[in-house]
Write a structure and sequence with these properties.
Layout (H helix, E strand, L loop, with lengths): L16 H11 L7 H20 L4 E3 L3 E8 L2 E4 L6 E4 L2 E8 L1 H17 L1
Helix pairs in contact: 1-2
Length: 117
């Protein structure tokens, strides 16, 4: 099975905060919310998300996935030409594990796109 990876931007579309606000307002047709209020809601969510990750908590959003910071230990690395050894500092990386329903939706999309070509 061949895995085809999408190229990074600029070929791939991305969403700005303004576009996310528009999409959320489309889903909330029964409630009237101004763009400013919607932006404050999104900012509050992102701040809570960031604070939780910085406090070393995992963030679990049902039917979406789990996001957490994972410590990558420091390790010994060597320069390929000079053979000089140095120690790489430990750092944190963000990991995302999609939920089963999210994975299934992605599989369905891939299957649909494959049948169209």
């Amino acid at each position: 099975m061949t895995v085809v990876r999408q190229p990074p931007s600029p070929g791939r579309p991305s969403l700005s905060k303004k576009e996310i606000i528009k999409k959320m307002k489309k889903h909330l047709t029964d409630v009237t919310i101004t763009n400013k209020v919607m932006e404050k809601i999104i900012d509050a969510f992102l701040l809570a998300y960031k604070d939780s990750i910085l406090e070393n908590h995992r963030v679990e959003i049902r039917n979406f996935g789990v996001i957490r910071a994972e410590l990558v230990r420091g390790r010994l690395i060597s320069h390929p030409e000079t053979k000089e050894s140095t120690v790489a500092s430990p750092y944190y990386k963000i990991t995302f594990k999609p939920s089963a329903t999210f994975k299934e939706a992605l599989r369905a999309r891939a299957k649909k796109e494959a049948s169209e070509t």
